[in-house]
Design brief:
By secondary structure, the protein is α/β, with parallel strands linked by helices. The chain folds into two domains: about 120 residues, 3-Layer(aba) Sandwich (Rossmann fold); about 190 residues, NAD(P)-binding Rossmann-like Domain (Rossmann fold, 3-Layer(aba) Sandwich), CATH 3.40.50.720. The chain contains twelve helices and twelve strands. It is globular and about 60 Å long. The mean pLDDT is about 95. The structure holds 1,4-dihydronicotinamide adenine dinucleotide.
Amino acid sequence: MRVDVFSAKPHDLVFLRDAARDTELDLQFHEARLTPDTARLAQGAQAICGFVNDDLGRDVIAALADLGVRLVALRSAGFNHVDLRAAQQAGMTVARVPAYSPHAVAEHTLALILTLNRKTHRAFNRVREGNFALDGLMGFDMHGKVAGIVGTGLIGTVLARILTGFGCEVLASDPSPSAECEAMGVRYVEMAELLGRADIITLQCPLTPDTHHLIDDDAIACMKPGVMLVNTSRGAVVDTRAVIRGLKSGQIGALGLDVYEEEADLFFEDLSQSYIPDDVFARLLTFPNVLVTGHQGFFTREALRAIAETTIGNIAHFQREGAALHPVTLPD
Ligand code: NAI
């Protein structure tokens, strides 16, 4: 069975080939992102394998279905970029990797928090220039601070454990509270209380119609002045323009982003020899208290191995049984 892998980077080749070594799958790798223009590369494939910034909207799904593609195997947990209704209408199965390493993303979230707090990114450059002055580098003790986690699924729960270990008081907001979190002392509160009390707010919920621009001007106005906001979930959970207003007014004291609502045209590419075409993103980079990473929360050896194994497992199962191990279905 031929499987066309889109947005393929060198690490995808290594991990997917290794995971597929005992299968009959014919993996074809395309560096190109899946778009209406590149969908035709899948001519001859029965399955395609996509990542977070591939376009899996209605037009692309229709084009793939016309080519005979029966399976979309995502190398991600999030599936907000897939038109599930179009896939269902085309009789196409969509599969994902529901869990690979929640530790990878939770630990990256912590890396952003600690870097923003203790400003190690700035200290690194300063010390290399022989500047050992401390002004501007003052942070705060994590111990005793209030952390608010929005979304305590797999990733949020690991993060809650880490932050509890630091001695933070952890508040959470989630329509489905986790017994594991409650057992470790996490307190579920209304969003308004979380926004108003937290010194550090982290977003670990999926992007859905309910969470789109969850962090907007109104939410920011409810936050503690000088709050640290970190988003490692999906870019559009945050209204970037509102956050820029919050940074300018000082309401937001520090911002860490691993995701950005318009990241598809930027992230995973080397633009260092050209320019950043997105003025809103470029504005974000002018703030000294903003730290952006290019969607690398998942990027650990363990996570990549698990993603590859589950993805190949989904495809091989579909080949044998006509159904994926981890299908994504439309909500009722
Ligand atoms: P999960 O499905 O285990 O947990 C998501 C949690 O969010 C659930 O408990 C759900 O009830 C909760 N939730 C849903 N709507 C909410 C709302 N309106 N307010 C508060 N909570 C809400 O998902 P997991 O594995 O923890 O991943 C979370 C998200 O992280 C993914 O959907 C994905 O978008 C993102 N992610 C980011 C990665 C990165 O590299 N930066 C890698 C992997 C995932």
